[in-house]
Specification:
- This protein has two domains: 363 residues, Alpha-Beta Barrel (TIM Barrel); 49 residues, no CATH class.
- Helix content is 44%, strand content 11%.
- The protein contains 15 helices and 14 strands.
- The chain has an eight-stranded parallel β-barrel with strand order 5-6-7-8-10-12-13-14, surrounded by five helices. Strands 1-2 form a two-stranded parallel sheet. It has a two-stranded antiparallel ribbon with strand order 3-4.
- Helix 5 runs parallel beside helix 6 and helix 10 packs parallel to helix 11.
- The protein starts with 11 loop residues before the first strand and ends with a helix.
Amino acid sequence: MTDFFKGMSPVKYEGPESENDYAFRHYNPDEIVMGKRLEDHLRFSVAYWHSFAWQGGDPFGGQTFERPWFGDSLDLAKMKADVAFEMFDILDVPFFCFHDADIRPEGKDFRENTDNLKAVVDYIEGKMEGSKAKLLWGTANLFTHRRYMSGAATNPDPEVFAFAAATVKTCIDATKQLNGQNYVLWGGREGYETLLNTDLKKERQQAGRFLTMVVDYAKKIGFDGTILIEPKPQEPSKHQYDYDVATVYGFLKEFGLENDVKLNLEQGHAILAGHSFEHELALAGSMGLLGSIDMNRNDYQSGWDTDQFPNNVPEVALAYYEVLKAGGFSTGGTNFDAKLRRQSLDPEDLILGHVGAMDVCAAGLKAAARMLEDGKLEAARDARYAGWEGSDLLSSDLGAIADRVLAEGINPAPRSGRQERLENLVNRYL
């Protein structure tokens, strides 16, 4: 045991009237919603990188956090794991996630990185034996180190491509060892800063081959989890190859991977791509590609990915409505890719940030479930498209359609989309 969270008891559900800051008001893990426990719907996960590796910097300022485990040694990495599992137990979360660089010290070369990763993974495996927390997904950090300044899979230097591929291999191995339910590829720098030195076709082919190798290797070693891509628009690159759901779908189709890979979608990334979170979720769900989500929010007055904890129940409800419509999570879950503000220095802040976010998500999912079970929104949607029932228009051709319009004197009048009525309907459930 460490003394970082000294004196903090496990957070329990106390109901909406509770005045206890360290209690859940809406998240009762055993509450049954649409025939399933709330914990099994939401499948909460803590992000190792923001909660335990992030030092409190921003684009204009350096470290503000002082944590006793900061530093590059195996002993400190093990202390970090001790603190992490203490927090998982306080929050009673079922899952956590990590990049390799979050949990291991940075070595002088690939061999040392691999040895360090193996040592910490073995230690975490031991920690998991005494905790309910499981690994939702693992991934590789292929963006922070200066070797990746021009990308990883899309790098013009084949040696960087090789280093990245070897690193991902070790991370898939680690994820399998810890019985991770997914493996995520997040292309933080898979893009370009100027077209003057970029071969778009070549870099796209490299990215496609890289992902194909990942899928092939996962199958080879018997990893039965889901391979996920996390779409990411411009930031930090001017353009990135995995910009949004539609872009990634085209990429997967091009390389024949649409049946092997699903998507991990983040609210903040959706906003940066010019979409709403529910848009990206709805599109992925309609394509059968929805795998998991990173739940956070952006500051709408800032033009970058601020990764704040969610606090807007109406926004979250619309997101979970699309998740539930798509059938809910199987291997995926709700990962809090969210970090404290750099002025929030205390251990208590780390707990309370997650407590509030878990409550917001629980309230949002329950509102979404009420909306879906009531059926009025879907009935209104079905009514809008009712004219297509029994229609053969989509199997016809332009000439035949033109003849029919002339013969029947078709002259349609516009119909109201009833948007305000539907917005009012949604607000009844919140």
